[in-house]
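Record format v2
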Amino acid sequence: MEPDKVRAPNIRDVARLAGVSYQTVSRVLNNSESIKDTTKQRVLDVIAQVGYRPNQAARALVTSRTRTIGVLTSQTAHYGPTTSLHAIEEAAREAGYLISTTSLATSDHEAIVDRLEHLMRQAVEGLVVIAPQVRVFDAIRELEISVPLVTLDSTRRDDHRSLSVDQIAGARMATRHLIELGHREIVHLSGPQDWIEAEARMTGFLREVDEADLATHPPILGDWTADFGYHVGRELLRYRDFTAVFAANDQMALGLIHAFRDGGLDVPRDVSVVGFDDIPEAAHYWPPLTTVRQDFAEIGRRSVAMLLGELRGDAEANHEQVFPELIVRESTAPPRI
Amino acid sequence: MEPDKVRAPNIRDVARLAGVSYQTVSRVLNNSESIKDTTKQRVLDVIAQVGYRPNQAARALVTSRTRTIGVLTSQTAHYGPTTSLHAIEEAAREAGYLISTTSLATSDHEAIVDRLEHLMRQAVEGLVVIAPQVRVFDAIRELEISVPLVTLDSTRRDDHRSLSVDQIAGARMATRHLIELGHREIVHLSGPQDWIEAEARMTGFLREVDEADLATHPPILGDWTADFGYHVGRELLRYRDFTAVFAANDQMALGLIHAFRDGGLDVPRDVSVVGFDDIPEAAHYWPPLTTVRQDFAEIGRRSVAMLLGELRGDAEANHEQVFPELIVRESTAPPRI
DNA sequence: ACGTGAGATGTGTACGTTCACATTTCTCGT
DNA sequence: ACGAGAAATGTGAACGTACACATCTCACGT
């Protein structure tokens, strides 16, 4: 006939056992000065002894500070967003913040609103959005979200802060590399239509092709996966009206190369392929992939720094850019003939 | 001279505007029955109009329910843990729970304790541990954590629930496949020493080799990365006293293959390579990788189901196993001669 | 017309903490 | 030895919600 659950000790229990008032315990918890060392130690001993853990809900209620940053991610377990997320978690932790992550199961408007509402109910103090779908921004505007917000991978110039890798520049570098090798018929395998990143890379590609006065092949819309890249590669084999492909990420590039090889084409002898992201495996693909490197971890860290800056009230620059880097390996070569 | 921050509307504000008591608003929020439809609608209208959001801290304080599940992940952005994490988040969300994720920056005892303490302060109702380092279990025991706990990828049989892919069985399948092809000199490239997964795969490998009465090459300890696989491959080229390698994950397998090719060896003609995990890119590697598939998403989903079951008080089975599957592709073949 | 009971709504209180302010205790210099 | 001021500690209230219980309202059968 034991009581089913014993109530967890609270600040008053600790105070009683230490022979002080609850306020003194609170001071110890918050590292207040003007506490006698002996008293402080006595309180700490009791805390350790009874295994007291401050109730964050009560604390948040009275201070109206949650020390939590909300992160909205896309539904996929891609390397880039994941790496950024880890960096965000680490940077936030170091600053004494915690992370509440939620991901988008679907990218329809309702789901986005639901997830944002969820984060706001959590009373997050700031928001990092790594879900670079265009629609997210509409939802944010609609909900009149008032906490500081940083978006990643956006090329938008909106009323919130953003941090982006200059995807357009990266795409231009990749495209220019192919052009400089002598390619004149270049196909672009893009990401999904509503991803801002995909749009930016496509824009960069089109601009570069345009400036070089080359014929424009209509970009193909992909879904970021190697499987899709493979299927596209099989299709492309039927036309052969190109000498190079710029894929919007490394996985699709891998699928393309696989399909080309299956079709009897050699990369880079018969066709050059460039990827994007420089995931850690890209250097070990066969052939090692020429790609555009982005520092996802750096982006994550800096996004937290920006957010914390805004939380502290600094009126810093609103938009930062991180520059990507072209990594030339062995999947690109001059066209035959 | 505006007031700097307007207080967010609370339940009493809503009540006043709707001309009802705060308790009635509370009833609407909690979908209580015995609310007149017209009243309910009036309250909902006010809520929407003023943008009222219930304060979770206050709610948690009084109900002592946070509806939060804590997740402890390893420090790395690997495909497997990440995929499981996504599945966990989704499953939890569907059950009305939220996720508080924290990752291990380092795997020393202090860091682990710090992270666990952190989650407990958040008053998580349950814990999912995807950080399969051995030391985590010591910390959990030491902290006398009382909330329901599910660990992933563990082969331990402890006092908490666990859900694991039978890594030993998977490793045996991979090894047996090589043996059945006729290989007698097989090297194992393992994961880091303190990872339970790595240990289990090594155990499976050693058992199978032992049962087949083959000479045992001492396993090589790796770090899961393709880069490391490449370096090991370069080293191995100097000996050539093996005809097959079983790598503990696909990335290391990729690096190995790269190194072998650089050294003039053909996979699978000169040496066979098997990976583990079946990440989505494995089918598109060159050659397409023979590997062991694990359903990471399934694991994530089931871990949440187990946890919720325990939270509801079901006394279900304590340990579930998920079986992996051997996927034979083109990186394995009979040994030459 | 009136009591009855169910349905609808209202009131008091507790959750565990921090903040503002009040009070006590110590440490000096004289 | 004493008072002033600083240091240390204590008291009352508030944060926003849900629960237990109390009260009000209304339809209905007699």
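Chain B has three domains: 11-54, 63-165+296-322, 167-294.
The mean pLDDT of chain B is 90.
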